[in-house]
Design goal:
two-stranded antiparallel sheet, alpha/beta, 300 residues, single chain
């Protein structure tokens, strides 16, 4: 199925005027300060809160991460990222819920670095892109054009630690087909082809370091709280061959994905399906927390 997007000319990449037309359509639908920063501030007594940068768009968005107060260089380091795509709500709130519920317990084994909301403008406007029509989750590379990606890369380079594991929290939603993939095709002057939206949770591993046993352990933990997405009739998820139940692989480094941000040997991207008939916001958050638990329990 193809969907024609109302901005741009078929077969022609967007000019700046098209990007500005798209930007004018975006509106604030929720509040980063109220929804996210208040929760970060509530965790300050338990974790170090670091403002690692600011985004200067229509207003200033401070960027925060939380890290272990009791940092121990003898412990392995864990990176958890959420909200790289700001519209993927359970990624943001799953990262915060993990810290609130389980962070102190897992600190016995790991140094934690948790970035709950990489893209706060995207969170407020319920958007995949930033205001420049750039996808931060395709922009984790040197001289990145996306400040969301560049500022996080800069901070982690200065932090100078080697991570054992990176869990990047995402969602696949029905709006991928109704809005975001058609917009992407229009922006790039291509023909859009919608994909089959998986009904359930799945993972995207890294083709260069797939770690199938690690991914399997995460799926087993998540299965306790929500259902795992079945493959389509071609044994694929979002057009990619299944590696095992609920797992496909992307080359995260080549594609500039957040999962390729570090040299961590254990990497996964979660994909929650919030539009399932059985899904609730709480259940989606629980799925994200379970994924982190499964990853870290495997490595304890």
């Amino acid at each position: 199925m193809t969907t024609i997007y109302p901005i741009g000319e078929p077969g022609q990449p967007w000019l700046e005027k098209h990007k500005q037309a798209w930007l004018k359509l975006q509106t604030t639908k929720r509040c980063y300060q109220d929804d996210v920063i208040t929760q970060i501030e509530a965790l300050k007594d338990q974790f170090d809160c670091v403002e690692y940068g600011q985004l200067g768009y229509d207003k200033i968005f401070p960027l925060f991460l939380l890290k272990s107060k009791s940092w121990d260089n003898q412990k392995p380091c864990v990176l958890i990222t959420g909200g790289v795509h700001g519209y993927e709500t359970s990624g943001v709130h799953g990262a915060l819920a993990f810290l609130s519920r389980d962070g102190k317990a897992y600190e016995q084994h790991f140094n934690l670095v948790v970035v709950p909301c990489v893209s706060p403008w995207g969170y407020e406007t319920i958007n995949r892109w930033n205001p420049m029509a750039i996808d931060p989750n395709r922009s984790f590379y040197k001289n990145s054009p996306a400040p969301e990606s560049a500022l996080l890369q800069e901070y982690l380079e200065k932090l100078g630690v080697e991570f054992l594991v990176h869990v990047d929290l995402h969602e696949t939603t029905d709006t991928d087909n109704s809005e975001f993939r058609p917009a992407l095709a229009a922006r790039d002057g291509k023909t859009n082809q919608n994909w089959n939206i998986p009904d359930g949770f799945y993972l995207v591993g890294h083709t260069q370091k797939p770690q199938p046993d690690f991914q399997k352990a995460i799926i087993a933990q998540v299965r306790k709280v929500t259902h795992i997405a079945p493959a389509d009739n071609e044994n694929k998820l979002i057009g990619v061959e299944l590696e095992q139940e609920g797992v496909i692989n992307y080359d995260g480094t080549k594609l500039g994905l957040c999962m390729g941000l570090t040299n961590a040997p254990f990497v996964t991207t979660t994909e929650v399906y919030p539009d399932s008939k059985t899904a609730t916001p709480e259940n989606c958050i629980d799925g994200q927390v379970a994924a982190i638990q499964g990853a870290l329990n495997f490595l304890k």
